[in-house]
Amino acid sequence: MKRLGVIGYGARIRHMLDVIGQFNTGTQVVAVVDPAEASLRVAHPERLENVRFYDDPDSMLDEAALDGVLIGTRCAMHTPYARSVLARNLPLFLEKPVAISWEQLHDLQSAADQSSSPVVVSFPLRLSHLCGVVREIIDSGVIGGIEHVQAVNNVPFYSYTYYHRWMRDEAETGGLWLQKATHDFDYLTSLIRQRPVQIAAMESKTVFTGDMPAGLHCVDCPKQVECPESPYNLFYLRGITPEVEPNDWLCSFAPDTGNHDSATAMIRYESGIHCVYSQCFYTRRGGG
To answer: What is the residue-averaged pLDDT of the chain?
Structure first.
């Protein structure tokens, strides 16, 4: 049996563990670092029945005799925890973004240069069925060579989370270039099969702005019935939930809302071809 340790036992890592389990790899989670131990044990009693929780990653890494580690914390902690794993040369599954600043990236690269850890970063879209079909079409030669790329991501329904919840805090995520566009840059580069050599970009914030009070929660807002971004409109009126469920959403039209809401990049590749990429968080998929 391969003994796995988890740092940050959230929904994303639980999903990845389910996927790993589908392949009958003989793995088992034996150790977890997560401050929400009590609520996690209530929510997932069978999964965590024989799992030991540790107060900090170093204690787990030193004591649990692990064969591999998965990191799924909030983004700002990916680098420091990854460095601890790399220092012990353990196999690592690391959620993206791997770093949220140039300083973190430098520290992580230095740690990786001194480590023998095999590492997988969570960029699954390059392995999706759709991306595989596109790769087959390109490889067949039916459309000729790639001379120019135009890519648009009108981010769908779930984009609300970048303005209502913790991911609106750029100090936690590094912003939407790292939180969202990295997926697109990864699969586009894998399809182009060249290294990017130059990039220019700009971003705008023109929709998710406003003068609603900072710190205002949607459930306390007098405008929740008319607001297009409220749980009342996004979930209740669409029939997704039978009522407005309790939530901790913050107002997306207040001055403390982070993140750009549209952005464009131009990327030049080794052969001289370039890609024009745009992401938009208010013209959602199917809306334009």
So the answer is: 94
Q: Model pTM?
A: 0.89
Radius of gyration of the chain (CA): 21
CATH no., domain 127-208+258-280: 3.30.360.10
CATH fold, domain 2-122, is Rossmann fold (3.40.50)
Chain segment 248-277, per-residue pLDDT in tens: 999 999 999 999 999 999 999 999 999 999
